[in-house]
Design a protein that fits this description.
The complex is a heterodimer of chains A (541) and B (171). With 541 residues, chain A is of the alpha/beta class. In chain A, 48% of the residues lie in helices and 22% in strands. In chain A, strands 1, 2, 4, 6, 8, 10, 12, 14, 15, 17, 19, 21, 22 and 24 form a 14-stranded parallel beta sheet that branches. The radius of gyration of chain A is 36 Å and the shape is elongated. Chain B is an all-alpha fold and 171 residues long. Chain B has two domains: 73 residues, RNA polymerase sigma factor, region 2, helix turn helix motif (Rna Polymerase Sigma Factor, Chain: A, Orthogonal Bundle); 85 residues, Arc Repressor Mutant, subunit A. Chain B is built from eight helices and no strands. The chains are: A alpha/beta (541), B mainly alpha (171).
């Protein structure tokens, strides 16, 4: 028998020859070394080929499974949104007029108070940031000085005191070249007093139950306590935080005061006044040479402001003299008959007539009433307004983009879950605790001076966390909706769907405000627990 | 365990194998990735009809194979994708005994796969089905609409071309 063809040998090596044909090839191969070797080589070759082909893909990662988009979900969502919006329109139209004003806050569109405060702060920072920054730098410089002095003292107690002192002095000289005066600290559990006949030629840090300054401070005064009263003379800046701050004396520089009540009576302020308070009262005998900026529930300007006055509050009243412009942001901006304004008066109010200029008030420039769009819409049915939907769309877009960024930066937030009611309640509780304690903590930190930037940072971080709280919950809702067999689809898809649902939910009439609160608190709780969980793990690692 | 979770597990277990088959059939890692995803999406849609008593691997491989062949058929403008049997058979040459097997050493897996990817479709597809998907000649013949001898010829020619490519590439 002649040798089989290459094709036959190849098929034989693959075990694909019919039984009879295979038998004859086998018999031939027993007596033919060449064919026997070729069959063996062909078998080896196929084995090597199989191994090579199967190894081609071993290392490439397995991509995420992207299940087919459920068009049904989107259709349902759109129909649901339309139904809810329509229903809301009808309900609001029918009931809106009968709702007593006391429970109007339940209206979801009224629950933006926090947002408004945040916007006020942003506006303020934009206007006044540079000046505040200078003040903060001064404070930080002073704190640095204290730290260095403490370090020098510590070094002196040990060996090599000389080196320590020299290094500290050098550092001080480098860090604070312009500081001409030193620093004095007065602390007491009870009262801290600078008597009328006393003069301090330093920056003074005074902290006590009550701080009373009757004498003269030739430098800055940093005063913190339950009650701070300045009747004397401060040539530098005054930075103060207390339940009640009364300024009856002279401050050569600026005043930065945070208090429940900030009262300026007979005061002479050389530069600017920044007041953060429940009530800011600039009495008739007070003269602020620079600008006056006040954030408060009620702001009264009875005295004189040398340049501009800017007031953020529920009620802003001007009955004194403002040489420059008056800018009022609030529910009611009133200029009493005694008011004298050199520049323009601008009232950023919610509805026409809220800027109330009484007959007799003298205004050098123009009077301008700017209706705050957000505020105006609150007083009528927003659901029937196209602008409302555009607004919500913008809101959705902003939340989506920032949310994407958040989830991209912190992938851990993509995997959060709320498996049961207990987790929801726990997160809500933690969120409530965080919402209450964060601002308090920030204020307390601010009181320690060194913490002012930290306090501000805490506020900012808190605001950011609040903003993102609903995004986090939206992501979880989206994931729950998209329950797919191989894990969720891309987080952008779950986020988009979740956000759409959240925005519809928080705009539902009457329960929307509550939904907003719950979603915010749960989200905040989740963020806090995630952060702490992360830090704990980092610490443990 | 829900059926959906089960699918997730199956995906993880079988994806590499499915992608490997697609890669061998289509000759491109990128297209293979898409094809494998598509195969799983088809399986996902048809999952309700899947009989759990059958091995999932065979089922998904079949879906992937069909999908890839569809892709190839759509792409191919030639009516006879796999050539004429007698012409191909006439072209089969006796292998040079020295090149046989040697060129296909396992340590040259990357080179082998590159050479497979470069093969014309008509040789690559039967090769992938026979040596990657472990299909029999009869199965391949049925799938490609050719005779089983034609399958043998194509495999023979395919291996021959591989040997040549690898011999040229090797130093």
């Amino acid at each position: 028998m002649s040798c089989p063809s290459t094709l036959v040998l190849s098929m034989f090596a693959d075990g694909e020859l019919a039984t009879i044909e295979a038998g004859s090839v086998e018999r031939h191969a027993r007596g033919c070394a060449a064919c026997s070797a070729q069959i063996a080589a062909l078998k080896d070759e196929v084995l090597a080929l199989r191994v090579a082909m199967h190894s081609a893909d071993d290392l490439a990662p397995i991509p995420k499974f992207a299940p087919p988009t459920r068009a049904r979900d989107f259709v349902l969502l759109v129909i649901g949104t339309a139904l809810v919006a329509g229903l809301a329109n009808v309900i609001w139209g029918a009931l809106g007029a009968w709702i007593p004003s006391e429970i109007k806050w339940l209206d979801p569109l009224k629950s933006g108070a926090l947002f408004e405060r945040a916007m006020d702060i942003v506006k303020f920072v934009v206007y006044e940031g540079p000046a505040m920054w200078t003040t903060t730098l001064n404070v930080v410089g002073a704190v640095l000085l204290i730290a260095l002095v403490a370090w020098v003292a510590g070094s002196a107690a040990r060996r090599r005191a000389f080196v320590g002192i020299a290094a500290s002095l050098l550092a001080v000289a480098v860090a604070l070249p312009s500081t001409g005066h030193a620093f004095e600290i007065r602390r007491s559990e009870g009262a801290v007093t600078v008597a009328a006949d006393e003069t301090i030629n330093d920056t003074l840090l005074a902290a006590g139950q009550t701080v009373t300054i009757d004498g003269t401070i030739n430098g800055d005064l940093l005063a913190f306590g339950q009650e701070v009263t300045v009747r004397g003379n401060v040539t530098g800046n005054l930075v103060t935080g207390a339940q009640r701050v009364t300024i009856e004396g002279t401050v050569g520089g600026s005043v930065l005061g945070g208090a429940e009540d900030l009262l300026l009576e007979n005061a002479r302020i050389g530069r600017d006044l920044y007041g953060f308070s429940n009530e800011v009262d600039i009495a008739s005998t007070t003269n602020v040479s620079g600008n006056a900026i006040a954030f408060a529930e009620t702001v009264d300007v009875d005295g004189r402001v040398g340049i501009d006055f800017r007031g953020f509050g529920a009620t802003v009243t001007v009955s004194g003299a403002v040489e420059g412009d008056v800018d009022g942001f609030g529910r009611t901006i009133r200029l009493e008959p005694t008011a004298r304004v050199g520049g323009n008066v601008t009232g950023h109010v919610r509805s026409a007539g809220d800027l109330d200029v009484r007959p007799g008030a003298v205004i050098g420039g123009t009077t301008n009433e700017q209706i705050d769009e957000r505020g105006q819409r609150r007083d009528r049915n927003s659901y029937g307004n196209v602008g409302f939907y555009v607004n919500q769309l913008v809101r959705f877009g902003a939340a989506f983009l920032t949310g994407l960024l958040l989830l991209w930066v912190f992938p851990v937030l993509r995997t959060l879950t709320l498996p049961n009611v207990v987790t929801v309640l726990t997160s809500g509780g933690i969120g409530l605790a965080a919402a209450v304690t964060l601002p308090v903590a920030a204020v307390i930190v601010c009181v320690t001076i060194v913490g002012i930037p930290i306090g501000i940072l805490t506020f900012i971080l808190g605001a950011i966390a609040l903003y993102f709280s609903k995004t986090v919950v939206a992501q979880i809702i989206g994931r729950a909706l998209f329950r797919s067999p191989t894990g969720p689809p891309h987080y952008a898809a779950t986020l988009a769907v979740g956000l759409a649902i959240v925005i519809v939910a928080i705009n539902l009439p009457w329960i929307g405000g509550f939904a907003n609160l719950v979603l915010t608190l749960v989200g905040l709780g989740l963020i806090v627990t995630t952060l702490f969980g992360h830090f704990n793990r980092s610490a443990a690692a | 365990m829900t059926k959906e979770v089960a699918f997730g597990e199956l995906y993880k277990t079988h994806f590499r194998q499915v992608r490997g088959l697609c890669r061998q059939l289509l000759g491109s890692p990128e297209r293979a990735e898409d094809a494998a995803q598509e195969a799983f999406i088809r399986a996902y849609r048809a999952f309700a009809r899947y009989d759990p008593s059958q091995p999932f691997g065979a089922w998904i491989m079949k879906i992937a194979r069909n999908h890839c062949l569809d892709v190839l058929r759509r792409r191919s403008t030639e009516r006879a994708l796999f050539g004429k049997e007698d012409e191909e058979a006439a072209a089969v040459q006796s292998p040079d005994p020295d090149s046989l097997g040697l060129a296909l050493g396992a340590e040259r897996a990357a080179a082998v796969n590159a050479a497979v990817a470069k093969l014309p479709e008509k040789y690559r597809v039967p090769l992938a089905l026979a040596y990657f998907a472990d299909s029999s000649y009869d199965e391949i013949a049925a799938e490609l609409g050719i005779t089983r001898t034609h399958v043998g010829v194509l495999l023979c020619r395919g291996k021959e071309m591989l040997r040549k490519t690898l011999a040229e590439d090797s130093p």
